[in-house]
Specification:
Two copies of one chain form a homodimer. By secondary structure, chain A is α/β, with parallel strands linked by helices. Chain A has two domains: about 210 residues, Aldehyde Dehydrogenase, Chain A, domain 1 (3-Layer(aba) Sandwich), CATH 3.40.605; about 180 residues, Aldehyde Dehydrogenase, Chain A, domain 2 (3-Layer(aba) Sandwich), CATH 3.40.309.10. Helix content of chain A is about 35%, strand content about 20%. Chain A is built from 13 helices and 22 strands. In chain A, β1 and β2 form a beta hairpin.
Chain lengths: ~500, ~500
């Protein structure tokens, strides 16, 4: 049996562009993991790691034009968006270099011996060490920022973990390019290239999660694929942490006062956010509660104008396009569901954006309309028209977990609905927004890109400084002579790390 | 069908003492979870929570004499040990009250709007909120510190999570007493009693982990029971974090120089640690690498004296006693395994302590002797005699994960074996000790009681300040008007919380 070829495909035509690689066999996955595992000690040096991350950012920018060209050819996301994504990805690598430099993530805690305690304290010194080889499953919709050089890879390397990336089949050429950039950056920083290894193929991904030397995994993708890998990670003889982002509706609630105040602005803003990147953001507002009144009607009119003007777009691949068309068709066929702007097939390879409406009353109890509470990937959003705040809250209470939840409230005067609705939204999501739009995820220290299941499979984030915490485990040294302590834990703090001593910040 | 009775049993005689309760049906478990869930908002007030934890410590001490008496009657652990455990448990409750007061665990991070960033930062404010109802599975061997009022309960309550405890069948009367103490303490602090609810029964424990309103679980017990619950938690439609401590060998390595320096001291220390509490500590040193030379022989002689002098002891229940006797018999029957002091049945209800020896060469590759690398709960430890540092390291490389790993090295002069052996031990455990003994787990901020699987099912700790992190999830507020922000995130920091602002400690 010869190895299965991996083709780069042009989603604008459906035509293969070039054969990029072959799918890895289980044996090849084993070799990849062992290669990464063998070089793990090289990543122990924080200074070299930070230099590596910065070199990766630099090399990514140096080869940016070529990367964007290739990524556009196989994703159709467009050079402007991809250029922005590349800049963001480079900034993310540099942000993690800063996190490594500062060392607060090591969470150093030192308790000196204290016989007066119950029971007595011995000398205890704790910090965090890398878990080991991390498997990263790249996303379709962000060929850079959530793929080979993306947040999972950057945070795992920052933690000191070698990475084996399973490329997404929608952009194998970009993946190969980026992997070579990362490997060259490693060499430039004096590290072995195998701190990053790339594999292709669905079966390879399954073999990867099961490999005994893999210590943790990061994933961005669908509920179906992510749950299968989560289950495999949990079923291992030695289970491993699986940090997956699986799906999100990203609900929005517009208060009556907000609609009265700025229906047109909200409608246009929603339309822009829901159709951004042809509706392929994991933070796309996919479900919106809008008052069933004249102000709500005005909002929908502005939304319709914006969405109609979005033009046809090319989705990432034909499987995604088929799923979008089927998903829209099934939802639109439900009783009382209307499509003021019908989302659907454009040309042979494109789709057009649209939105559906439904009375919120259809969603307050279990029934066939629950399909509207499931994410439909692509340029469609569902508008539920509500007649009372209680009805809106009843629908919110039935939603699954989300990456984001957004409140649109009045700004010019106090909005009595704002606080109760925000309180109903916060339990649903990892990030809560007021009078903003969820698409666009800042790479900032306080960012949280996660949320209750299925938004994430663990209470962790894949974006922001704390993403590094996923790849570490604490270890405490008890009564250990200074000479045998890791430098991070020595009394004189030779590395100048922030730390807590005897229970207090030092 | 009538409800199954729950009996308190005297392990010294095997006789039932009294019927304490009945096992909860699935319906009753549902009622317990819903009751706890219904009062979750009452725990939002940090001041009330801290007062509650302190009241619990006080009430536990006030009723301490009675609790110790009952606990001794159903565990045979003895009043001295149980009195110490009670003091430790009260101290632990107070330590978590301090953690709540300080508020550093909220991990507040504030990033101000900054248009100069790539991509631009909006105003982002992140902190941590409680996950919801936590299921706590109590341990057999610590009827207080790892049971109803123990670390899992204390840390979950500190995080703001109501708790449903599944009592351990070895001490149901103690569990009822402690639950009533916690519920009275809640009332004293002005909180609803249902912030802590107790259920009994194996099936109740299974129903509990599957209940949709349970958000996370803590467990201390066996690999078999813990793994079954871990699997059930992962298989839920909405999987939940399962923080379990499942088992540990707690390896010790004695260097040649250490044995030469103080063979008798190490032998006696090991004997004391391995037989403490009739060998029923999860941190019992269960596997010890000792040089196969004359110094090692001296060490074993001292060990034999200490262990022989330990006297007969009563194990927690007859099931544990049977498993101990079978486990020892099977291990002792392996080729080349000797029993200088034979562990085994004492009287009808007691056991006597002992230890086994085996050449380390028997353990460098897979084979029937791998049974010696599995925990045997009770007063037995396995001594592997090694002939070279390489052989010792080869055996260490085959060990599963552990709570602790201990090095005994020379103290009077430099010990060249110390650093390489410590480097081989650190990857195996959550806590590393030098020239100490692993039994005894200080309740200190830097403590880490966890480790690679099966020591723990997640990179978390069940003892120490950071145990609270298990029951929280982050949420970020974006561009949220001051009036709608939780007080923890307001610009003027009305609660005086430690926080990081714009990526720096404030």
């Amino acid at each position: 049996m010869s190895a299965a070829p991996v083709w780069s495909v042009d989603p604008r035509t459906g035509n293969p562009r070039e054969q990029v690689a072959v799918e890895a066999t289980a044996e090849e996955v084993g070799r990849a993991v062992r290669a990464a595992h063998a070089v793990r000690d090289a990543l122990a040096d924080r200074t070299a790691r930070a230099a590596f991350l910065r070199a990766a950012a630099e090399l990514l920018e140096e080869t940016g034009e070529h990367i964007v060209e290739v990524a556009d050819a196989e994703t159709a996301l467009g050079p402007a968006r991809l250029g922005g994504e590349l800049a963001r990805t480079a900034a993310q690598l540099r942000a993690f270099a800063e996190v490594v430099d500062e060392g607060a993530y090591l969470d150093v805690r030192i308790d000196h011996e204290d016989g007066s305690r119950t029971p007595p304290w011995p000398d205890l010194r704790r910090y965090k060490i890398p878990l080991g080889v991390v498997a990263v499953y790249a996303a379709s919709n962000f060929p850079l920022a959530f793929s080979v050089p993306g947040g999972d890879t950057a945070s795992a390397l920052a933690a000191g973990c070698p990475v084996v990336v399973k490329a997404h089949p929608d952009h194998p050429a970009t993946s190969e390019l980026c992997a070579s950039v990362l490997r060259r950056a490693a060499a430039r920083a004096g590290l072995p290239e195998d701190v990053v290894v790339l594999v292709h193929g669905f079966d390879a991904g399954v073999a990867l999660i099961r490999h005994p030397l893999v210590s943790a995994a990061g994933f961005t993708g669908s509920v179906r694929g992510g749950r299968a890998l989560f289950d495999a990670a949990a079923a291992r003889p030695v289970p491993i942490p699986f940090h997956g982002e699986l799906g999100s509706l990203n609900p929005v609630v517009v208060t009556g006062a907000a609609a009265a105040e700025r229906a047109e602005e909200i409608g246009a803003g929603l339309g822009g956010s829901a159709t951004l990147g042809v509706g392929q953001f994991c933070t796309k507002p996919g479900f919106v509660l809008v008052p069933a009144d004249g102000d709500g009607d005005r909002l929908l009119k502005a939304l319709a104008e914006t969405v109609s003007g979005a033009g046809a777009g090319v989705l990432l691949d034909h499987r995604i396009r088929d799923a979008f068309l089927t998903g829209v068709r099934e939802r639109a066929a439900l009783p009382d569901v209307e499509a003021p702007v019908t989302p659907g097939a454009g040309g042979e390879h494109t789709v057009s954006a649209g939105f559906l409406t439904v009375p919120a009353a259809r969603l307050t109890a279990e029934g066939p309309h629950d399909a509207l509470l499931e994410e439909c990937f692509g340029p469609v959003t569902v508008i539920a028209r509500y007649t009372s705040q209680e009805e809106a809250a009843a629908v919110l209470a039935r939603l699954p977990g989300n990456l984001t939840a957004t409140l649109q409230a009045a700004t010019a005067r106090p909005d009595p609905a704002a606080a109760p609705l925000l309180a109903a939204l916060a339990p649903l999501a990892g990030r809560v927004l007021v009078n903003g739009w969820p698409t666009g995820v800042a790479v900032a220290p306080a960012q949280h890109h996660g949320g209750p299941y299925p938004a994430a499979t663990s209470p962790s984030t894949s974006v922001g400084a704390t993403a590094i915490e996923r790849w570490l485990r604490p270890v405490a040294y008890q009564s250990t002579p200074e000479a045998l302590l890791p430098p991070e834990l020595r009394e004189d703090n030779p590395l100048g790390l922030p730390r807590r001593v005897d229970g207090r910040r030092a």
